Amino acid sequence: MPEIIPSPDPNYLMDLLKKIISFKTVAPPGGCYEEIVDWLVPIFREMGFATQKMVMPEDVFAAKCSDPRLVGDRNNMRADLSVGAEKTLVIYAHLDVVPAEGNWETDPFQAVAKNGRVYGRGISDCKGSIAALIAALKALLESGKPKYNLSVLLTTDEEVGGYSGLCYLTDLGQVKGDLMLCMDGFCDDVVIGSNGIIHWDVVVHGRSSHSGSSFLGINAVERSIPVMEALMDLKKVVQARRSLLPASSALEAIGKKNLMPMLNITMINGGIKENIVPDRCNLRGDRRVIPEESMDEAMAEIERTLKPLDVEFDLKFYPGYPPMSVNPNHAWVTEVREAVQRGMGFFPRLSGAQGSLDQAYATEKTNIPTCVFGVGRQLESNIHGLNENVRIADLNGFARFLIELLRL
Ligand SMILES: [Zn+2]
Q1: Contact status, residue 157 vs residue 65, Cβ threshold 8 Å
Q2: Ion ligand 1 contact residues with beta carbon within 5 A
Q3: What is the pLDDT of residue 67?
Q4: Ligand 1 mean position to 214 CA, how many Å?
Q5: What values do phi and psi take at 383, rounded to 5?
Q6: Is there a smaller number of Cβ atoms within 10 Å at the N or the C end of the chain?
């Protein structure tokens, strides 16, 4: 007898998507979290999941999320299904979306289908994957059980690099399992690595004076030039390095074959008036750290570069998410790629993300092997931009991929 593979209902998927897109979980400020979680809880309960709403306590919020743009409760949801399997799979996506400004062709908070695509804010990042997950689980659970116990984490504030979502759950010990699928990705490649990020901040000190006798002062803006030159020399050294991880297929298309580290000067601020010698100039930027580098060494390298300069300055670092790297030969990686092949009809490349992921924080702390795979396409979906969209075929394909990944 031929095997009957459960199939996601595309109409149900579209109905779910319409509802999910309608919640204005825009961060900042990060609203509607309670509303969307209250809507999700009964859906998961009906499928047999035990659900838990995890609201970040106000004191933790005050201590860890000192971003005045964020207001209201931080509601995260954990939904667990135990089927007596040996292993537990953690599935993660974030509920928040970036603001939808500008002239959209459709209402960004209504999922509108046209010409084989659906449009809406967050549809590719990552609400489309959440709708596909629910549709996949419904189809799968109606006809049997998954091969893994499941722990679904739907969280807050990813788009503001906030702590209240996956990082908070990680520190609470709520990220528990043997394998992890992060749906905050795209479907061109399976992402198994990412760059770490460090913000750096240099304040160059001088002494103010009347610019007519500027020899009496020390010009902090002019003293910033050797600092910038030293950083630009270091930039050449840093950016000549390459990771062994391939870059994403979108970057490969423009000749960037491997993941690369970055050193950028992105902000400069100094001086108050044309005729005052400035006593302070602030330079800021970031350093993207490939998995083969260490965050500590990247900071030490900047320190070593600036130290010999005959300039008075203060240097500070704000390390963010670490780099991530999963063994490309891990059985989980192969399993995910093969499920993509069966569900979506192509065998995906492996790649690394130039950007930095909260997933990397969870992977580093828990050591759970992770694959990042989502529903949008890097060059088509206009993630974070106007008219964000996904192919309807990809939505249904993503649900089929999940079924292939989970079915016995
Ligand atoms: Zn995202």
Answers
A1: yes
A2: 125-126, 184
A3: 83
A4: 50
A5: -55, 130
A6: N
